[in-house]
Amino acid sequence: MFPKLIDVKGLENFQLSLKYDDGTEGIVDISHLKNKGVFKKWNDGNLFFNVYIDRESNAVAWDNDLDICPDSLYLKLKGLTFEDWKEKQYATN
Hints:
Structural class: alpha+beta
Radius of gyration: 14 Å
Strand content: 25-35%
Order of helices and strands: EEEEEEHH
């Protein structure tokens, strides 16, 4: 099971400051999404900076239609693929 996201802040240049309950924290650049599909909404005003943690899904969210899986951000922050993470989980259990 992935750690739980406990804090998120929107930063300049479409970066997120993230903190997870296992002590992992850092900054993830998601600027590659800014002009794609629903993420074009970030270009309207300050929406990107109004990021929050959805209490039902624990997703990184901006509104009901715009969110990102916190697990994928965790993997990006750690520089791991899902397969790498899964292998590490089984190695420690």
